[in-house]
Amino acid sequence: MGKKPKVGFYGLTGCAGDLLNIINCEDELVELFDIFEIKSFVMASSVKDESVHLDIAFVEGSVSTEKDLEDLKEIRKKSNMLVAIGHCAAFGGVQAMHLGDGKWKERYKKVYGGEKAVTLTKPMEPKPLSAYVKVDYVIPGCPISKEQFLHAAGRLLLGTVPNLYTFAVCAECKWKENECLLMKGLPCLGPLTRGGCGAICPSFGVPCIGCWGPVDEENISSEFKLLLEKGYDKEEIIRRFRIFGGSERAKKLKKLLGVKK
Ligand code: SF4
Ligand code: SF4
């Protein structure tokens, strides 16, 4: 990348937890600001130069309004590389849990009283960044972990590919020698969920709800069958699968349930 890479950090609709976690890299923050030429990071810097072309843009949040979409397209246009950070940007977040069921307007009206209730910008059905633009890399998590962010930033700085975890939460759970919660009859989604959190919930006896997003090649039919056998209600399982499942899992669920449209 030559001299100091020009970098921007942006937030669309989300809780800002990923950007906060980057600011929480307290021991490395000064170095980060030294290595990168930060051109936009409203939570951490007064520098805001949107006219420059960026080497890397890190973007958090889902596309949930027309303004989000407009901003995202602008960011994409002026960046060589776009990195989705966190579950909302990567998979849509909990706000996208019903993505693809065709009832977004109905739900929106029920909660807000109609699209006109929000006057600053027009709301849209929440979707991940990849629904609209090319995403070069994804740093998963809800929020992302400091370690994975620093690893990815370091790799990108060197011009190589970030090598993030591809295994499920169960792998980390086993390394901690936890007793499996599924064996105790609890509805743990560890087998379907991307590792990286250190299996924090099952380590405290709490079943995973999948907040790091689906692991590649997740076997939802096997987990679905297992939870049915454990006596869980079909609708309850589907709801659980949907919370952090994102659009890809919604498609797989439709196939599994034989839903045509
Ligand atoms: S407790 Fe959950 S995360 Fe741990 S091994 Fe069992 S299914 Fe996997
Ligand atoms: S819900 Fe699952 S993925 Fe999220 S922190 Fe807990 S164990 Fe990790």
Main features:
Rossmann fold; 11 helices; 2 domains; binds iron/sulfur cluster; 38% helix; 5-stranded parallel beta sheet; 261 residues; alpha/beta
Question: Span from first to last CA?
Answer: 46 Å
Q: Please state roughly what percent of the residues sit in beta strands, choosing from under 5%, 5-15%, 15-25%, 25-35%, 35-45% or over 45%.
A: 5-15%
Domain module tally: 2
Number of helical elements: 11
Low-confidence stretches: none
Oligomer: single chain
Query: Helical content, roughly?
Result: 25-40%
| CATH H-tier superfamily of the largest domain | NADH:ubiquinone oxidoreductase-like, 20kDa subunit
- Give, in order, the helices and strands: EHHEEEHEHHEEHHHHHH
Largest sheet: 5 strands, parallel
**Which CATH first-tier class of the largest domain would you pick?**
Alpha Beta
The ligands found in this model are:
iron/sulfur cluster
Describe the fold and architecture.
The chain is globular. It is of the alpha/beta class and 261 residues long. α9 crosses α10. The N and C termini lie far apart (46 Å). The protein has a five-stranded parallel beta sheet, with helices on both faces. The protein folds into two domains: 152 residues, NADH:ubiquinone oxidoreductase-like, 20kDa subunit (Rossmann fold, 3-Layer(aba) Sandwich); 89 residues, no CATH class. The relative contact order is 0.13. It is built from eleven helices and seven strands. The site of one iron/sulfur cluster has 12 residues, from α8.
